[in-house]
Design brief:
The protein contains 19 helices and 31 strands. The chain is an alpha+beta fold and 749 residues long. The chain folds into three domains: 172 residues, 2-Layer Sandwich (Aldehyde Oxidoreductase, domain 4), CATH 3.30.365; 181 residues, Alpha-Beta Complex (Aldehyde Oxidoreductase, domain 3), CATH 3.90.1170; 308 residues, 2-Layer Sandwich (Aldehyde Oxidoreductase, domain 4).
């Protein structure tokens, strides 16, 4: 039987962020705050052409400039590759505007910038490709000889008899959608400080979602062992699935540091942010779904082409993620997936907030909504009929040990007043629903998916919790402290969380694929139980009961049902240390999914959006969002609501506002002034519904909430716009100009 909220003293209760005061007062340290003795500053020389042959590089003027300490080109790192067919510096052909050609280190940033401008590179411009359609033409030039047809990577999968499924369908619908290039817009710009002044140790400070992947990538490329690379992430100013891989500037800083024997800092300018970031590129989707006469999905087919830009680093994971998404949401009898990464001469792309799934959900959600309308079904009923349920095993082998999808849909529809509004609103007012699912971590990056934790308790009862999980603003460290506090009968404020240094903290694959609460939370719980077991020896003896009868709660320890016999927790800790044994309590734990691949749990959500369209400007106002999310158990309800708010903002921003404008490979709006984002007053009213399905595998039943809500926001807003217009807009973002075109066409008859 699931434990009730009243059974817990910490978990399930609102807890302010433990680092709130530090963040508010500016005392939290970020990479840009680090200053090392003798530190140099670096700048990268980048190609001004989308595709060109390098005829010569002259660095003499830069080297002669006072204050310059080093200039590096391909000759300094000829065997260092960032990705497939992507050397650190180009020396033959450049493949996008921003491609790295050289770099300089100097005493200060201004001198480095001046020196970079003095490096003369002679180019011969070459023809280039700027979109998926041209790149896939039979006679298109090849950007890389090994990528035949400009296809960098592809994945195909058939599950079940797809053709039979379509043949047995009473109705089949096909739709096409496009999402355009966008940018993650972190609060913290790309920055790295490398110190390779000692030959056998590279230390690097940089924001990251996964220190272990950075450590392994740098070690492998620079011919070091993992232990010879130290990654310090301090605080990270936003991740949004965009800080999971080492970028060229990390290698540049390391090579310059090795050459100069001094620490080197490299920081992106505002313009460079749009080049250094591997954000989302253009994607073309084609969805085909066959259903029975009663609306049951019989077969599904997805064909997706991703503009991966000039190079592939590790973008192929987006194919794996999008290939399995439909199976996490609906019960399907047969499915086919065809996906490919297509080379162009645009910036190398990865994906925006939502990991490629939120963007896919923009089209998929509209496709399913349109299918339901064609069948004469209410979209709410369609999702309820086809949604996965607890105990179901998908065609990919995923078992759903918990599932609150139906509860999310039902509660959201009721609170939003769906039945009395859908199809009954006045012109240019609309209502739409979006549903979604998100994995709580997934094994596949390594043979393990391990998170480890270590906790030590000093004799005043305060504790230090060591984890490798970074906190990027999502308050994961507060959640980890709450899990440990619940086990040990402490308060979250008794615990200091230590993270961000691979030489100090235990291993953790990182804050990616929404694994933090689930994987690291389980590891922390295990470590806390290990520490508690050590304390139980003395406590059980003092109280004359078995260890299993002890209760650790509210900084006290007492026999179950006898709180009047309580002994202060700090006394138990003190006496354990000052005993004959002299035990200093240290707990350790780890968690690794027992599965060979895939995830142990999915979160689920549903959102209903209401919008108003201005007929004169085409501007869409999102008036209201009702958002529910099945989080398994809310470790910290206040932060769950904050996560939902943030993702509603990001999702609404992507679907209505955000677009990286490109002209022949050149970013035309590389600033926060020109790259459109919603302002705070444009944020709609958000009503939260937390659904707790109590997952059997998560810590205290918890699942992810790091990206699950955003996959619901995009289709909810898009469907609301379609409802208001009377027809869908199949391109994202849904800009005022696109809406005015529809309204103008309609006015002309």
């Amino acid at each position: 039987m699931a434990s009730r909220k009243a059974d817990f003293s910490v978990v399930g209760h609102d807890q302010p962020r433990l680092d709130g005061a530090h963040k508010l007062t500016g005392r939290s340290l970020f990479t840009d705050d680090v200053v090392l003795p003798g530190m140099l500053h670096a700048k990268i020389v980048r190609s001004p052409f989308a595709r060109a042959r390098i005829l010569g590089i002259d660095t003499s003027a830069a080297l002669a400039l006072p204050g310059v300490k080093a200039v590096i080109t391909h000759a300094d790192a000829p065997k260092l590759y960032v990705g497939i067919e992507q050397p650190l510096f180009r020396h033959t052909i450049v493949n996008y505007i921003g491609d790295e050609v050289a770099a300089v280190a100097a005493l200060d940033e201004a001198t480095a910038a001046e020196a970079a401008a003095l490096i003369k590179v002679e180019y011969e411009p070459l023809p280039a490709l700027f979109n998926i359609q041209d790149a896939l033409k039979a006679d298109a030039l090849l950007i890389h000889a090994k990528a035949k047809g400009n296809i960098a990577w592809q994945q195909a999968q058939d599950l079940g008899d797809v053709e039979l499924g379509f043949a047995n369908s009473a109705h089949v619908r096909t739709d096409q959608y496009t999402t355009h290039a966008s940018h993650n817009c972190y609060a913290e710009f790309h920055v790295a400080i490398a110190d390779w002044s000692l030959p056998d140790k590279l230390s690097m400070w940089t924001p990251t979602q996964t220190a272990i992947l950075f450590q392994k990538s740098l070690a492998g490329a620079l011919r070091l062992s993992d232990g010879q690379v130290r990654i310090m992430s301090l605080n990270t100013g936003g991740g949004f699935t965009g800080r999971t891989s080492v970028r060229p500037h990390h290698y540049v800083a390391a090579v310059l540091s090795r050459k100069t024997g001094r620490p080197v800092k490299i920081r992106a300018t505002a313009d460079e942010e749009f080049i250094a970031c591997r954000a989302g590129g253009e994607v073309k989707y084609t969805f085909r779904t066959g259903v029975s006469a009663t609306g049951q999905i019989k077969a599904f087919e997805a064909d997706i082409s991703f503009d991966t830009g000039a190079y592939v680093e590790s973008q192929m994971i987006v194919l794996t993620l999008t290939s399995s998404y439909i199976h996490s949401l609906y019960k399907i009898e047969a499915a086919r997936y065809s996906g490919r990464l297509v080379h162009t001469n645009n910036i190398p792309y990865y994906f925006h907030h939502g990991g490629g799934l939120a963007q896919m959900a923009f089209g998929l959600g509209q496709h399913m909504d349109a299918l339901a309308r064609e069948l004469g079904m209410d979209p709410v009923d369609f999702h309820l009929r086809n949604g996965v349920t607890k105990g179901y095993t998908s065609m990919t082998g995923t078992f759903f040990g918990s599932c609150g999808l139906a509860e999310c849909i039902t509660k959201t529809a009721k609170q939003a007043g769906w039945k009395r509004k859908y199809g009954k609103l006045p012109p240019l007012k609309g209502i739409g629903i979006g549903v979604g699912a998100m994995a709580s971590g997934a094994k596949g990056v390594f043979k393990h998916d391990t998170s480890a934790a270590f906790i030590k308790i000093v004799d005043d009862g305060t504790m230090s919790l060591f984890v490798g999980l970074p906190d990027m603003g999502q308050s994961s460290h507060t959640a980890m402290a709450m899990i440990a506090a619940e086990v040990l009968g402490a308060q979250a404020s008794d615990i200091t969380v230590i993270s961000g240094d691979t030489d100090i903290v235990p291993l953790d694959v990182g804050a990616l694929i929404q694994r933090g609460t689930f994987n690291t939370g389980n590891a922390v719980k295990s470590a806390a139980l290990d520490a508690r077991k050590q304390l139980e020896v003395l406590a059980a003896g003092r109280l004359g009961v078995k260890p299993s009868q002890l209760v650790f709660r509210d900084r006290q320890v007492y026999p179950k049902g006898q709180p009047e016999k309580a002994i202060p927790l700090k006394k138990i800790v003190y006496d354990t240390l000052h005993s004959r044994e002299g035990r200093f309590v240290m707990g350790r734990g780890f968690y690794n999914s027992p599965k060979d691949s895939g995830t142990m749990a999915y979160s689920f959500g549903a959102q209903i959006a209401e919008v108003t369209i201005d007929p004169d400007t085409g501007f869409v106002t999102v008036d209201r969002i009702v958002a529910s999310h099945d989080v398994g158990r809310a470790i910290n309800p206040r932060i769950v609501e904050g996560q939902i708010d943030g993702q509603v903002f990001s999702g609404m921003s992507q679907v209505l506002y955000e677009e990286t404008l490109l002209e022949d490979g050149q970013v035309m709006n590389p600033s926060r002034l020109d790259y459109r984002l919603p302002r705070s007053y444009e944020m709609p009213k958000v009503e939260h519904i937390i659904v707790e399905s109590i997952d059997p595998f998560g810590p205290f039943g918890a699942k992810e909430v790091g990206e699950g809500p955003i996959v619901c926001t995009l289709p909810a807003v898009a469907n609301a716009v379609a409802n208001a217009l009377g027809e869908p807009v199949n391109e994202m973002p849904i800009t005022p100009w696109k809406i005015l075109q529809i309204l103008g066409r309609r006015a002309k008859g």
